[in-house]
Amino acid sequence: MFDFSDRVVIVTGASGNLGSAAASSFQQAGARVVLVGQDQDSLRQAFPAAERQPDRYMFGVADLTDGGSVQAMVRDVLARFGQIDILANTVGGYRAGTPIHETPLDTWDFMLNLNARTAFIISQAVVPPMLERGYGKIIHVAARAALSGGAKMAAYSISKSAVVRLTESLAAELRLKGINANCVLPGTIDTPQNREAMPDTDFNRWVTPEAIADVILFLASDAARAINGAAIPVYGQS
Fold first, then answer.
1. Average pLDDT, 10 consecutive residues per value, the chain (238 residues)
2. Which of 54, 63, 73, 96 is most exposed by smallest CB count within 10 Å?
3. Which domain holds residue 92?
């Protein structure tokens, strides 16, 4: 069991399947958790007890594609808790199914904005307070598809590959500053949405959000102090 009782953790995409699993795991390990999403109602629904525990939780409503919105959220976190120690960035999404020559430009822009732009903007926002403290852990969520291009998923694959390259660049820039940056590469995640989309698949082979959250907590812990710039496969049996 990890102990994060002296840490402040930002979890983006906190109302989603993976984000809520990560946020709950950090809270159970004693962290003060900033639940970040675009919609406060969704955050309240996912964490109904959070508002009764203002010393342990904070809602951070922000549009992660907008730098000003994210910077404002980070300022609010620092005003409340005085520090940011860990970023667990679970924001992302999937859109695929067409060959490159038939893929709308809107799909390209959507994937790059949702998966890569958000990771860039939230990284920019949390690094300065981490530098000030000389400590930080940054964990992004990429995907197995980041490792190679596949048919009918170019925009998705490229956007997730960008997250890996961003993570490596952060690690290279910050490795002597007390800040580690790593990412995880999930396979197919066992979520209600994926079960509905692929009903004939063996769900037991997919990786659960809780299993991915375990890896995120490890990377955020001092046990992973020697790991920097890594892309960790978390595939389950898929």
1. 94 96 97 95 92 93 97 98 98 94 97 98 98 98 95 97 98 98 92 80 87 98 97 91
2. 54
3. 8-234
